[in-house]
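for the writeup, i need someone to sanity check this before i put it in the appendix. the sequnce is what the collaborator sent (i think, or maybe the updated version? ugh). structure was predicted straight from it, no edits. if anything looks off just tell me and ill rerun, i have time this weekend
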Amino acid sequence: MAKSLRSKAKRSSRRLKREEGTYAVHDAARLQRLNARLLDSNSNKDKIGKETEDKDEEDVVGDDEDKDGEEDDAKMSPTPSTTGEAKVSTSGARGSRRENWRESKGMKPRATSHGMNGKGKFVGKRKAGRPARRR
């Protein structure tokens, strides 16, 4: 009966599939890919660490600790200018699918109304007044 991701029946069946079912091959390949990626990233970190140690040994300065701290802070928080990515704005109006379709066809997103009401006046965007449907 239970359908949630945390249900014990679902978790146990997934565990069995992972160990002995057809999913086992797929899961093993996934684990191998992740392991290779982790090993590559760790080896890159080790190389970078060795290079910085060599530079520190060559440059004997009294404030080595302060310089290392500043470099670590710069590495930890890259600015958008250093990464080359422009900051994306997430604010503003989000068009509906209808508006997006109209824009793709070269039309205005919202059509202007050309009609008139019963009194001969132009129809507004919001049609206030007497309802058209009897209630």
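The mean pLDDT is 75. The radius of gyration is 32 Å.
thx in advance!!
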